[in-house]
């Protein structure tokens, strides 16, 4: 009995759950809300005796980790495209559709089989079409996706990366995601997650990241981190009725009354960096708590509301934050790095993929890693690959290219390109559109075929010194990508996916073809065969009737017949 | 097959075809004309219907309320346009930004190969302004376009006003699944060409443009709006695009369906639909409407800003507001509601418009003639060429002198090849000259003669064309010896088959052009021999040549539009049509001019050559 309670106590101390919500009022008048939920658990899934007692950590994911020997798992479901020009950089980027990348333990022998089974299991857990991930859309990037947790092996044989740009994300994906939270959607910040509001927005993204992390600076003990994030941007015109005034109730149609009782920390951060004297917007209720954090290369100031303190909720026992803008100015931003991609050309035979990357830093150049995964039915002419910046050729210092195999695997192109300061770099490659077999077309072939986003990973020069100590106490949103240098920070930018039309037959055609071939075979082949096999003879003209009678008589008489 | 494998019956069939060749040909010709005229008779045509399920069964509501405000914006736009003396770029950018769009501009410039006297422009510089309404939670893969031209003077101010009004209203709606691009293009077609080339990063015509900064993925459909009055009596839809391409019929159906729903008078070719198809006047009304479409399609030019979209496989149409003296007027709010309804339905599209016809003719908005119905008319004309070719083949296969030895035959055939090849090469060189010289030698012509550049180009073209008529004399000097009876038959056989292939291919791409050319060239091809009366035949041949076909078409077109012209004006119009045709080729890549110059005219020259065979 005593032993049991001791071990229970020990287990309880091994767990930690934090939740936070960051709200950033955007210059365009829109508002960006980012939820982060982190569960830490000091355990070893790879032990011989299986882990069976789960408390805060979701059992379904824990079993997946131990069964498939997963070292790191990153999955995101996104509906919409992040508008870097208007909204700046997100805390955690994700491409439209679904994205999944997994590092397996080096003990796994058949990675492909594990990957196949894993995608099917995850498909069930998240009610998503992840089962459509197969060898034709899976790649093994050599440099773009490094492990984010503790690293001891970075052989990319154990990495699998796939995107499904066509995946539609909706309530059915949100519900299983919410069920992974310790408090569900019953208490804490998660009560705000009502799908009717979340899907009435400009951008919606939900992610799950699992990785092993260090507990302390010396990294004596490691623990598993499950980080669930949800990012949503509400539109000024459609959700805000054009008024520059936002409140928790307007955004989520709920207010907060308590923190999740299981959480060790539960906070709301409001980005007030641009608004130190309340000249742009006013915030109510006001809070004395301010916090500073270095995030995305910039020192930001946040007003903090601690939900574990009863004071926060005031006398009405409910917190409804209100942000009221004073000015109505909105302008485009110039983020240091952004990118776009499009298909050039016309007609259904060939085309050209253009990827345009902008470095808006006035005087520093920096390298970026570009990852392109193109389905096999666009046959890339890799000899037409050009990289130009400022009108001059820009030779990539590293190129990793894996050609596609028809119906087997996609093209994979990874390049390390140096972006000169204040420049536009354009990467172009021509392609030919393949003619598919008629069963390979989707049910809506005239809609077009999707090509996933290209991924640009970069170390962007930072204006302030970055925090390289990842273990110290800091807000969750600023601590996801580990930082190794003080002078630059890591950014990942996704371009828009492409919709490409392939030559599509008229699908009423098979009927016509059957009719035509039957006719050709019956008439053409039949008569030709007849002509070829018949032997021709010169035919005697028919004897006259009188001659016939005469011959008949002659036959009876036994005399020779008339010729 | 049995018929052909039996030598006796084959012989009988061939002798029947050769004996009755002329009557059959005449019969076919008249059958073709009658078939074509019958196409617009209502009982023979099909009713239009919506094929696309995504647009047919879904319900949308139209609630656009702000017509008056759009007209106020139009006035403001007009004032700014007058102040700047062109496109008020800054004002447009600011106004679009205030409506919550992502706004971008594109600069372009183009020097025309020679001055365009119709639009009075030579060096064109301008700016396109476009704003993108980003659909919520959409990954920028699909887009729709609404465009309005910024025309000189007070034209189309209302179109821009309505476009901005719609942008404002659309921005506050949640149901968009595709980005919507609101484009105001300067210098009408040239601006549109620059924008489309920039969007698709192609350069087919050598225009200078600055690259676009913002895109919305693959464009699914586009509408171009032309509106020059506060109220309209009817809305007209223009379908004919570059090289005779047409948008999917469902786009026209969509327009018609909403006109019916909202109660707006709608027209095609500016002609109101009539219900009395069984009366003579009703029938002739339908024929005239269809003939207008045939004429416009055959011209191969873009009859609105929409025409350039079609090359990129984007279904597009131009909607024109017409204000005539009718009593019943439609206000801007109603036009806005109509456009809102159309865009909401296009927004519902799951695939590109592909269900309905791409090849059709329309005798009215509610009826259409599909490719299966109109092709026989052309087929009957093409049969004539094949029959004539068969006749010539039979004549060549049974030469009168059968007993000659093989050596003589070989000699004869070798001279035959030479006598065929020389006119072929020379007439094509003349065609190449007709294609190259007018634009190349305009400077020289301007130096030596008292003409403007445009006149120089047109007159050079006519001069080269006329010069080609002297060809037979020059050809014969190159051939050693006399042209034989055998020789012209071979040449004619080649020419007839060449014409058949040429017209067949043209009719597949642009039926109207192929049919009009066939109507005039097939009689030429069938009757010409060296033995017909020279002078009379020469006159007939010239009258049936492509240049005269164009001249007649100009007069007939004016007649159909109920704007008859005198011969003098008609001639001036003819000259300007030639210059416009050449410009269309250089500016937008229209293929009619090279087709006529490089293929049809040389082919006609071959027949001219046969007539003067010695």
The CATH topology of the largest domain in chain B is given as Aminopeptidase
Helical/strand content category of chain B: alpha/beta
Range of helix content of chain B: 55-70%
The fraction of residues assigned to DSSP E strands of chain B is 5-15%
- Shape annotation of chain B: globular
* Structural class determined from secondary elements of chain A: alpha+beta
Write a compact overview of the structure shown.
The complex is a heterodimer of chains A (563) and B (614). Chain A is of the alpha+beta class and 563 residues long. Chain A is built from 9 helices and 26 strands.
Describe the 3D structure.
The complex is a heterodimer of chains A (about 575) and B (about 625). In chain A, the strands form 5 sheets. Chain A has an 11-stranded mixed sheet. Chain A has a 5-stranded antiparallel sheet with strand order 15-16-22-18-19, with no helix packed on it. In chain A, strands 20-21-17-24-25 form a 5-stranded antiparallel sheet, with no helix packed on it. The longest helix of chain A has 25 residues. Chain A has about 575 residues and is α+β, with helices and mostly antiparallel strands. The N and C termini of chain A lie far apart (about 130 Å). In chain A, about 20% of the residues lie in helices and about 35% in strands. The radius of gyration of chain A is 34 Å and the shape is elongated. Chain B has about 625 residues and is α/β, with parallel strands linked by helices. Chain B folds into 2 domains: about 250 residues, no CATH class; about 300 residues, Zn peptidases (Aminopeptidase, 3-Layer(aba) Sandwich). Chain B has 22 helices and 13 strands. A 10-stranded mixed sheet of chain B has the order 6-2-3-5-4-7-11-8-9-10, sandwiched between helices. A 3-stranded antiparallel sheet of chain B has the order 1-13-12. In chain B, a hairpin with a 4-residue loop joins strand 2 and strand 3. Chain B starts with a helix and ends with a helix. Chain A: Pfam families: Gpi16. Chain A: InterPro entries: PIG-T (IPR007245).
